[in-house]
Amino acid sequence: MTEWTDARPQRTAGMSAKDEILTRLRTALDAPRRDEVTEAQDVPRSYQRADDKQELRTAPEKVRAMLVQRLEDYTAVVHRTTPAEVPAAVAAALGTARSVVVPSGLPVAWSSAVHAELIVDDGSADPHQLDAVDAVLTGCHTAIALTGMIVLRGDERGGRRAISLVPDHHVIVVDAAQVVLGVPKAIQRMGEDARAAWTMISGPSATSDIELERVEGVHGPRRLDVVLIEPAPDSAPESTTESTTESAPETPLGTQPESQPTGQPVTDQEKTR
Q: Fewest Cβ atoms nearer than 10 Å: which of 128, 152, 158, 176?
């Protein structure tokens, strides 16, 4: 391997800018590398990866707590619930919405307690029609705790991108198994379907104008509610029934137990003893 040089080709008279750029590119490609990385396995892997110790060993409840903190920092409303209480939590998150658009494959149980009109999206509604809908209810693919980002896949649970961007209120149901700690693990999960359409959401839509005044709802939903399904707590063990039988008091060692009264009158002879 020869020594690295930064020598540039000399520009000859009459050489166009295009020819000069191409000549420099050829020279750079022909020059040896500064380092000795020549194969894929030689690339340093010191950055965080999906199998990082922090990703694998952090307790799931701590990861979910971090996700909740990040989402609330982004002004999203988080509803922590158990699998049995999902319908009630979804209904509470939708609030007073009168019409709700849902993807075609959304679990029916999630919306069983919703009294609003449910519109199953078939892909025919245009943005003007979606703008007249009060809210959208979707599932998700992955939730990243460190960044507070929720990833939606364009499938039967995440829906097409338009329904998650046009309505003013978005309710997302996140299962505990979909929560990961960092971005590398999320990218690994997304790599299982690399051709899918992905939508990444970090809180409600917000932007600032030239005077740095915050404006919400310009590029997406103004309100974001997240229903986080967590494992149900373990049931408390049944308390044992205490015995109602009182044990006799123990007699100290070296003493005689007191005699119980017999109801017999005490004689004068016994009094003198």
A: 128
Distance CA 29, CA 26 (A): 5
SS3 state at 227 = strand
Q: Are 221 and 205 in contact (CB under 8 A)?
A: yes
Structure tokens that stand for 204 in this block: 């409600």
Which domains are present in the chain? 58-229 (3.40.50.10420)
Phi/psi for 144 (5° steps) reads: -100, 115
Rounded Cα–Cα distance for residues 95 and 115 (Å): 10
**Residues whose CB falls within 8 Å of the CB of residue 272, separated by 6 or more in sequence, listed in order:** none
pTM over 0.90: no
Residue 67 in contact with residue 143, Cβ under 8 Å?
yes
* Cα angle 142, 114, 219; round to 5: 50
Cα dihedral 191/197/201/206 (nearest 10): 140
Strands laid side by side in the 142-144 sheet = 179-180, 142-144, 149-153, 198-201
- Answer for the pair 77, 60: CB distance below 8 angstroms, yes or no: no
pLDDT digits (tens, 9 = 90+) for 72-131: 999 999 999 999 999 999 999 999 999 999 999 999 999 999 999 999 999 999 999 999
Beta strand segments in 56-160, E: 77-81, 99-102, 117-120, 135-138, 142-144, 149-153
Distance of alpha carbon 67 from alpha carbon 132, whole angstroms: 31
Number of residues that make up the chain: 273
pLDDT, tens digit, 9 for 90 and up, residues 151-186: 999 999 999 999 999 999 999 999 999 999 999 999
Query: Which spans in 121-253 are helix H?
Result: 127-131, 161-165, 183-190
Tokens of 126: 């245009």
